[in-house]
């Protein structure tokens, strides 16, 4: 059985695979962080911390890179940093 963690994203409880990056968890949940110039949701640009498009607020801390942050039990995430 695969382990999961429970966390809050924009105030909503969700479950994500333990060990996943926050960016992967958000994408698996269908919660886009970025949009195309036309406004359509799209995936991350680099997924390695260079572009910084995936900045979120985690437990009140602004500017956290979702691609470099592992999900953990009870974390509070806001998609608009």
Concise account of the structure shown:
The protein is mostly beta strands. The chain contains one helix and seven strands. The longest helix is centred in the first third of the chain and has 7 residues, at 22-28.
Quick one: how many beta strands?
7
Strand content range? 25-35%
Strand order, sheet with most strands: 2-1-7-5-6
The number of helical runs is 1
Query: Could you say which structural class the secondary elements and strand pairing correspond to?
Result: mainly beta
Helix content: under 10%
CATH topology descriptor: Ubiquitin-like (UB roll)
Radius of gyration: 12 Å
- The end-to-end distance, rounded to whole angstroms, is 34 Å
Unreliable runs, pLDDT <50, ≥5 residues?
Answer: none
Number of domains: 1
Q: Would you spell out the secondary-structure blueprint of this structure?
A:
Layout lengths: L3 E6 L2 E6 L4 H7 L5 E2 L5 E2 L12 E4 L2 E5 L10 E3 L3
Parallel strand pairs: 1-7
Antiparallel strand pairs: 1-2, 3-4, 5-6, 5-7
Walk me through this protein's architecture.
9% of the residues lie in helices and 35% in strands. It is mostly beta strands and 81 residues long. The protein has one domain (4-78): Ubiquitin-like (UB roll). It has a five-stranded mixed beta sheet, covered by helices on one side. A two-stranded antiparallel ribbon has the order 3-4. The radius of gyration is 12 Å and the shape is globular. The N and C termini lie far apart (34 Å).
């Amino acid at each position: 059985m695969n382990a999961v963690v429970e966390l809050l994203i924009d105030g909503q409880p969700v479950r994500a695979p333990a060990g996943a990056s926050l960016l992967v968890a958000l994408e698996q949940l269908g919660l886009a962080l970025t949009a195309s110039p036309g406004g359509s949701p799209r995936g991350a640009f680099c997924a390695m911390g260079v572009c910084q498009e995936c900045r979120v607020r985690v437990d009140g801390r602004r500017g956290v890179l979702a691609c470099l942050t592992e999900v953990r039990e009870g974390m509070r995430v806001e998609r608009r940093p």
